[in-house]
């Protein structure tokens, strides 16, 4: 029996005691994120939001097997938000349509969500009226049975059968009434319910997953009371798609107790907040860096390559890497790097090394003296710096695997590692 076949199937239940710890963790991380954001100016907040929206659009599409050009997505978002974009790439009409849906949801998070709007969003995902080469119903609720299947033709496995098409109109009316109403429950729980409820109705022939993620994010935006969106769940779902589909299927075969689904959703959101914290930290460090260098003359090539590394490009700074990225000779790359060393912008990681690598000097001050109980740990496939800042603030900063490995081998000094990931703390 599927959940929608049960009487009063949307009277969802959950064990609050099993959710307390993870919800507190999410709320704490939300507070930390918005605390960091307070140090950003308006333009930097726009850039942080643009990066988050680009991630959301790309990963939400990828969950459905659709790969989008990241630079095109960024260009479309940058143009609509009227922010500078170094890599100007003309976006396709399709990408513009997808971005427009996302921005409509973000900018109008507090407006009533009506049938007409959600149907228009679905149509925007399929401007040609086709999906994977087949014509589909767009801009209206489905009129066909919807089976969620996997496997090759002739050996399909049915995971879920959605409500009959004649029930969709009534089920969606109930959902939208609930969505637009007021309910005194935790915003994360409410967002998780919205996601689960919508995909369980599966009101459209295609595009349901992307719409579910958009509307669940809208509820989080309502709780944040902010048109700035700095975190999204899509990137984390995309990393763990199998578990996502497994927990959905299990809950859709359940008796209305969705504790396990909410728990998984909240844990995934917690990881999303970590990712958002990384983005904001990167922007803060970058802002701090360029403020310090406002009067230092640099070539456009030096500025462009520095910005790539400041944005988190995953590679060591070497003459070979520099030459490749800048499309210049190795001799030119060496001159660029040596000039930056003389100007106090780069420093050798290991002085006198046969194949020297360099780190960016965010701040001439050695900030390692402010940290204690420092360790590099691996959690859920990611590496983190764990430390205590100024003997009172516990920090946990996600770092690149490459940097963790280099530090472990002794090829990246602690001072350089802390400067790269923790300089933003000196803004306090």
Q: Your description of this structure?
A:
The chain has 428 residues and is mainly α. It has two domains: 3-283, Fic-like fold, CATH 1.10.3290.10; 296-427, Arc Repressor Mutant, subunit A, CATH 1.10.10. It is built from 16 helices and nine strands. It has helices spanning 16-37, 42-63, 70-81, 93-107, 115-124, 165-180, 187-201, 208-224, 234-239, 241-252, 259-292, 300-310, 319-326, 330-342, 401-409, 414-422; strands at 130-131, 134-135, 147-150, 157-161, 346-348, 358-360, 371-379, 382-389, 393-399. Strands 7-8-9 form a three-stranded antiparallel sheet. A two-stranded antiparallel ribbon has the order 1-2. Strand 1 (130-131) and strand 2 (134-135) form a beta hairpin. Helix 7 packs antiparallel against helix 8 (208-224), helix 7 (187-201) packs across helix 11 and helix 13 (319-326) crosses helix 14. The longest helix has 34 residues, at 259-292. The chain is elongated, with a radius of gyration of 24 Å. The N and C termini lie far apart (56 Å).
Provide keyphrases for this structure.
9 strands, 428 residues, Fic-like fold, mainly alpha, Arc Repressor Mutant, subunit A
Contiguous low-pLDDT stretches (5 residues minimum) are: none
Query: How many beta-strand elements?
Result: 9
Radius of gyration over C-alpha positions, nearest whole angstrom: 24 Å
Strand content: 5-15%
Tell me about the largest β-sheet: 3 strands, antiparallel
Shape: elongated
In sequence order, what are the helices and strands, one letter per element? HHHHHEEEEHHHHHHHHHEEEEEHH
CATH topology name of the largest domain: Fic-like fold
Discrete helix count: 16
Overall mean pLDDT: 90
In spatial order, strands of the major sheet run 7-8-9
**CATH homologous superfamily annotation of the largest domain:** Fido-like domain
CATH architecture of the largest domain: Orthogonal Bundle
Alpha-beta classification = mainly alpha
Total discrete domains: 2
Helix content: 40-55%
CATH class value of the largest domain: Mainly Alpha
N→C terminal distance: 56 Å
């Amino acid at each position: 029996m599927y959940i929608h076949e049960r009487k009063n199937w949307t009277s969802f239940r959950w064990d609050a005691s099993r959710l307390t710890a993870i919800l507190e963790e999410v709320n704490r991380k939300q507070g930390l994120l918005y605390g960091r954001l307070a140090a950003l100016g308006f333009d930097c907040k726009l850039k942080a939001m643009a990066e988050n929206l680009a991630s959301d659009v790309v990963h939400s599409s990828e969950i459905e097997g659709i790969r989008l050009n990241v630079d095109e997505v960024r260009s479309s978002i940058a143009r609509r938000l009227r922010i500078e974009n170094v890599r100007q790439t003309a976006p396709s009409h399709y990408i513009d349509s997808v971005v427009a849906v996302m921005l409509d949801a973000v900018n109008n998070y507090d407006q009533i969500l009506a049938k007409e709007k959600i149907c228009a969003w679905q149509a925007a995902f399929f401007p040609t009226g086709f999906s994977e080469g087949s014509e589909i119903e767009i801009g209206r609720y489905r009129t066909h049975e919807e089976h969620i299947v996997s496997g090759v033709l002739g050996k399909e496995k049915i995971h879920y059968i959605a409500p009959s098409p004649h029930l969709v109109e009534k089920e969606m009316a109930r959902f939208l009434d609930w969505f637009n109403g007021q309910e005194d429950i935790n915003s994360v729980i409410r967002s998780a319910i919205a996601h689960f409820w919508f995909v369980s109705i599966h009101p459209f022939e295609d595009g349901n997953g992307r719409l579910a993620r958009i509307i669940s994010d809208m509820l989080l935006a309502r709780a944040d009371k902010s048109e700035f969106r700095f975190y999204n769940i899509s990137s984390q779902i995309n990393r763990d798609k199998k578990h996502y589909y497994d927990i959905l299927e299990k809950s859709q075969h359940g008796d209305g107790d969705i504790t396990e689904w909410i728990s998984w959703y909240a844990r995934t959101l917690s990881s999303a907040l970590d990712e958002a914290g990384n983005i904001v930290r990167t922007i803060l460090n970058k802002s701090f860096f360029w403020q310090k260098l406002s009067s230092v003359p640099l070539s456009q090539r030096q500025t462009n390559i520095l910005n790539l590394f400041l944005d988190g490009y995953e590679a060591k700074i070497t003459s070979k890497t520099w030459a490749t990225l800048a499309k210049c000779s190795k001799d030119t790359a060496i001159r660029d790097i040596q000039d930056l060393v003389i100007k106090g912008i780069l420093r050798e990681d290991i002085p006198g090394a046969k194949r020297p690598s360099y780190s960016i000097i965010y701040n001439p001050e050695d900030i390692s003296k402010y940290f204690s109980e420092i360790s590099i740990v691996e959690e859920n496939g990611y590496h983190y710096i764990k430390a205590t800042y100024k003997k009172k603030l516990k920090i946990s900063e996600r770092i690149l695997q490459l940097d963790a490995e280099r530090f472990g081998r002794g090829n990246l000094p602690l001072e350089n590692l802390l400067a790269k990931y923790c300089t933003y703390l000196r803004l306090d």
